[in-house]
Amino acid sequence: MVALTVREALRDAMAEEMRADPDVFLMGEEVAEYQGAYKVSQGLLQEFGAKRVIDTPITEMGFAGVGTGAAMMGLKPIVEFMTFNFAMQAIDHILNSAAKTLYMSGGEIKCPIVFRGPNGAAARVAAQHSQCYASWYGHVPGLKVIAPWSAADAKGLLKSAIRDPNPVVFLENELLYGQSSDVPDGPDFTVPIGKANIVRQGRDVTITAFSIMVSKAMQAAEKLAAMGIDAEIVDLRTIRPLDGETVLASVKKTNRLVTCEEGWPFAGIGAELSALVMERAFDHLDAPVMRVAGKDVPLPYAANLEKMALPQVDDIIAAAKAVCYKT
Amino acid sequence: MAIAKKKDRPGGIPEASGAELLNYYRKMLLLRRFEEKAGQMYGMGLIGGFCHLYIGQEAVATGIQSALGPGDAVITGYRCHAHMLLAGSDPKAIMAELTGRAGGVSKGKGGSMHMFNRAGNFYGGHGIVGAQVALGAGLAFAHWYRGNDRVSVSYFGDGASNQGQVFESFNMAALWKLPAIFVIENNQYAMGTSQQRSTAVRDLYRRGEAFGLEGLQVDGMDVVAVKATADEAVAHCRAGQGPIVLEVLTYRYRGHSMSDPAKYRSKEEVARVRAERDPIERVRDRLIEAKHSDDEALKEIDKELKGIINDAAEFAQSSPEPEASELYTDVYVA
C-alpha cells in the first residue's frame, strides 16, 4: 500500500496504461505543457512526449469527435474534459458516435475510448460550472459510467476503463483531487467496473452514495452512530452498469434506503434506485425510500445559497432518521 | 502559407483509358441501379424510415474511391449506400440492411443510414450532420499516430459545411498536419434550403482558408476530372503536407430523402442537369465516341448489373427479420 492523492492515483493509472499499451494516448485542453488544468497529467508529457500527450485547442466537440474516430480505428484515447460542464459541447459524439456505433453496425465498429474529467460542483463557480452528469450519461445504453470516491478506486477503475473495449465516461471530482488514501502498489492492481463497495457495514439503514457524496455519507454515519442508528454505506463506484445486487442485498438486511447524489433529484440516480428497490425488494422495505439530492435549482454563487442548494451531511442525517422513524 | 485556389489545368485533364472508362461506367451504373431499386422498394413499403439516394452524385464517390489505396479510410454521412458498394460490400447485404433483415450488413440494426465495412476501411454511415467530419479527422489522426502514409476521406455536403465542428476539425487537422481529405459534396441543396439561402460565401473550396488549407474545386459530374483531382489530394496528404479541402460540384436528382418531393426547385432545373451533365451518360458518350465500346456491349453490362441488383432485392425480401435475441446483442463488447 502507498498513500496517494486521487490526483496522483489518476495520473499513475494513465502512466501505467500508457507504458503497457502504445495505443493509449491522452488528449485535451492543457493536458501537456500546462500539466493538466488540475495537474492530473503532471509529468506525462515529459515521459511520453507530445505525440501521446496532446494539447488540444478549446474545441470540445471537435476533439471528442477526433478521439472517437481514432478509437473506431483501434486506438485507445483518453479524452480529458477540463470539466464535464464543457463536455456538453461534445455530448453528441459521446452518445451518437461513441455509444451507439457498435449497435448500429451490428458489432462491426468498436469504440474503446475514455472520456474523463471533473464532474459536479466545485466551490463558488456558479451554475454553468457546477453540474453533476451521472444521470445524464447513466441513461445511455452503450456507455459505461464510473464515479469513484477513494484514491484506490480512482486508480483501479481508471485502469479498468482504459482497458475496457467500450466507451467509458469517467466522472471525477475536483474537491476530491487532493484527498489522500491508501492505494495498492503495482501496475497489476485494477478495480472491476460494475461493482459497488460497502465502505461501512451497518444494520439499520442503507445509504447509497458515489463520488464526493461518499465523504458526506461517512460523516453522517458517524453522527448517526452517536444517535443509535447504524448506517451501512454503499459506494456505488459505477453508475452504469449499476450494481443493483449489492444495493438490494444491503436493503434486504437494513430494510431502509437513503440515496445520496449531488445532482438534481428529478430522474436522477436516486430515482433509479428507488425504482429498483420498489420492483425487486418492495416487501423488504420498512419505510419509503428517501432521496438526498441537490436542490432543483441552478447552482447559485452566494456562499449561503450554494450551501443550501448542495446536499449536506445534515440532510443525510435527517433522511436516515426519517426512514428509521426517529425524531 | 498555402491558400485555397481553383486549380488551373493548363493542359486540361488527361483522358482516361478505355479500361478505366469502362470501370467507371460499370461502377456508376451499379450505384444507380442499386439506388433506383432501393427507391422502388421504398415506394412498395419494403424499406422504412429515412432513405437518402445517391442518384446524380455517382461520379463523386466513384472518382474519389478510384484514387484510394489499401488502408485508406473513408467516412460519410447518412447518404452512404454508394460508399458501401464501392468499399466492396455485397449488394445483397446492403439491400437487406435497407429492409431491416438479419442478412443486412448491420444485422438489420442500423438501416439505410448506418452501414460500415471495417475490412473495406469504410467507417459509416453517420446520421448527425457534420459529425463524420470530426470522426474522419480522427481516422486521419490514427494514421498520423501510427506513422503510416495512409489518408482519410471525409465526405460531407454543402449543408454540413456550415456546422461548427467542421471548422474545429479543419483547425486541428491543419495544426497537426493530419492526412485528411475533406470532400464537400456540393449538391446545392441542404435538404430543401438552397446554397443561396444558407451560405454567405459559396466558394466552398475556400472553406479551409482561415486555417491555411489548400482547396480544390472540380466538376463532380465528370468522373475523370474527379479522379484526377482526387489523385492530387491524395498525393498532397501522402507527402505529409497535411489536410486538403476538395469541393465537388454535383447534383442530386431525387429529393433529400424518399419523403422529400423536392418542391423547392423546378422540374426543369432537374431535367436540364440530367440532360446536360449526367455523369453516367457522359462516360457512355466518351466510350462510344472513342470506340472503346458500343451500344450492345454497354447494354450487356446494364443487364448484368440489373441481375445483381434483382438478386439483392430478392435476398433483401427473403432474408428473415433479425432474431428477437439480437435486440440485446452488440450494446457492449463483452
Task: Give the topology, please.
The complex is a heterodimer of chains A (327) and B (334).
Chain A lengths: L1 E4 H15 L3 E5 L15 H5 L4 E3 L4 H13 L3 E5 L10 H9 L1 H4 L9 E5 L15 H5 L5 E3 L4 H13 L4 E5 L7 E4 L13 E4 L4 E5 L2 H15 L4 E5 L2 E3 L3 H11 L2 E4 L8 H13 L8 E3 L10 H7 L3 H11 L4
Parallel strand pairs in A: 2-3, 2-4, 4-5, 5-7, 6-7, 10-11, 10-13, 13-14
Antiparallel strand pairs in A: 1-8, 6-12, 9-11
Helix pairs in contact in A: 1-7, 3-4, 8-12, 9-10
Chain B lengths: L17 H26 L14 H8 L7 E4 L4 H6 L4 H8 L23 E4 L5 H16 L5 E6 L6 H12 L4 E7 L2 E2 L2 E2 H4 L15 E6 L3 H16 L5 E6 L17 H11 L1 H11 L5 H24 L16
Parallel strand pairs in B: 1-2, 1-3, 3-4, 4-8, 7-8
Antiparallel strand pairs in B: 5-6
Order of helices and strands of chain A: EHEHEHEHHEHEHEEEEHEEHEHEHH
What name is given to the CATH topology of the domain at 5-9 and 19-47 and 55-77 and 123-297 in chain B?
Answer: Rossmann fold
Report the sheet-strand fraction of chain B. Answer: 5-15%
Which homologous superfamily in CATH is the superfamily of the largest domain in chain A? Thiamin diphosphate (ThDP)-binding fold, Pyr/PP domains
Percentage of helical residues of chain B?
A: 40-55%
Poorly predicted runs of 5 or more residues of chain B: none
CATH architecture name of the largest domain in chain A: 3-Layer(aba) Sandwich
Order of helices and strands of chain B: HHEHHEHEHEEEHEHEHHH
User: What characteristic shape of chain A results from the CA principal axes?
Assistant: globular
The strands making up the biggest β-sheet of chain A line up spatially as: 3-2-4-5-7-6-12
Return Rg of chain B in Å: 19 Å
Strand order of the largest sheet of chain B: 2-1-3-4-8-7
